[in-house]
Specification:
single chain, 368 residues, alpha/beta, Rossmann fold, Calcium-transporting ATPase, cytoplasmic domain N, 2 domains, 13 helices, 13 strands, 42% helix, 21% strand, transmembrane helix, ATPase_P-typ_P_site, cell membrane, membrane
Length: 368
């Protein structure tokens, strides 16, 4: 009799203690991956993070290359008095070419596309231009040492810095945008500042366009109960213009943010609950890692640094990329609901199994 009690007790313990009955089966994630791939989303994530996407309360967007196309074009350039001559401007453009060579960031591509048209065909007075000690800071800008050797004179060197206004000001450089027309710098643009030896030398304004599906997607996400925000390194005027066009509330726009500041802003929302971050990978690696769930927008003209940098990647297809985000969230919620349902059935099954093994009267554990 004691032996039979022990057998029954062990059966009960094996049923109620089996952790697999309360885990998300890997098959669930495989089903999610297959379904998401059908509408242009590639999942590389974990069960826990997909559940976080389902439970998310906030979704934060990068601006350039995410809400906008990221196909930038230089529409305005202004130079300080010291660097206003044709010869000195040539030095700046050639230096920019050297520093940004091979860089696939949208800003770098735009400057590289513009520089040939700005350079004179013959620069006989400048025999040599050397750019050394190049240092790129992801999401911030770049620094280098530029040395010009002119015929019949000694060499002249400058320390160059190029990047967003916030980055240049963080280096102790005073930035003045008064030479840039207000209409230009408050449009859907990105402003790049170039400094030489700690002084502003040039300002470049790069024009962008909002993605055609952005406004509709923001409205759909709001209908799903999500709070929508935007974090960008660009100036507040440009960020506000984009936010107004896509339907993001002004109090949810965070501009002039360096990568570390983006993470701090994201962290504040994470304290309130799960948050999703959407970016184009160029300046968003830190936020991808910090967010509860991350989505990378990869356009047909872009290649991400690491295809697995985000939980979900919006791969190139005929469908506008942002339109797949609401579908991604709905799929995550659907899969989370199925798993919760399975958990409930597992609990019910365990209870019924316990009753079946022990009998309606029940038994206690065997005596030692």
């Amino acid at each position: 009799m004691l032996y039979m009690q022990a057998v029954k007790y062990n059966k009960v313990r094996s049923l109620v203690c089996d952790p697999q009955t309360l885990e998300w089966n890997p098959a669930d994630l495989r089903v999610s991956s297959v379904r998401s791939s059908k509408f242009g989303v590639r999942l590389v994530t974990t069960y826990a993070r997909l559940r976080s996407a389902a439970a998310a309360q906030t979704i934060l967007f990068d601006k350039t290359g995410t809400l906008t196309h990221g196909d930038l074009k230089v529409t305005h350039a202004s130079f300080s008095e010291e660097w206003g001559s044709s010869q000195t401007q040539d030095i700046l453009w050639r230096a920019v070419q050297e520093i940004e060579a091979g860089n696939t960031h949208p800003v770098a591509r735009a400057l590289l596309q513009e520089s040939p048209s700005k350079l004179e065909e013959k620069v006989e007075w400048l025999t040599t231009l050397m750019v050394s000690e190049i240092k790129h800071e992801l999401g911030r800008g770049a620094q280098a040492v530029v040395t010009a050797i002119q015929p019949g004179s000694s060499s002249t060197s400058w320390k160059l810095a190029i990047g967003s206004r916030a980055y240049i000001e963080s280096l102790g450089v005073s930035v003045d945008l008064s030479q840039t027309p207000v209409k230009i710098r408050t449009g859907i643009t990105t402003t790049v500042v170039l400094a030489m030896d700690g002084k502003q030398a040039a300002v470049f304004v790069l024009e962008d366009k909002v993605r055609s599906d952005a406004h509709q997607v923001i409205r759909q996400l709001k209908d799903l109960g999500l709070t929508i925000g935007m974090i960008t390194g660009d100036n507040a005027a440009s960020a506000t213009s984009v936010a107004r066009e896509v339907g993001i509330d002004s109090d949810m726009v965070f501009a002039n943010a360096l990568p570390e500041e983006k993470c701090r802003t994201l962290a504040r929302f994470l304290q309130r609950g799960p948050a999703i971050y959407v970016g184009d990978n160029y300046n968003d690696i830190l936020c991808f890692a910090s967010a509860s769930f991350s989505i990378c927008v990869v356009g047909s003209d872009m290649k991400s640094f690491d295809d697995d940098c985000a939980d979900a990647t919006l791969i190139s297809s005929e469908t506008p990329p942002l339109s797949r985000i609401p579908l991604m969230i709905l799929l995550a919620r659907r899969m989370s609901g199925i798993v919760t349902q399975n958990h409930c059935w597992a609990v019910v099954y365990n209870i019924l199994s316990v009753v079946s093994v022990l009998g309606m009267g029940g038994i206690g554990p065997p005596s030692p």
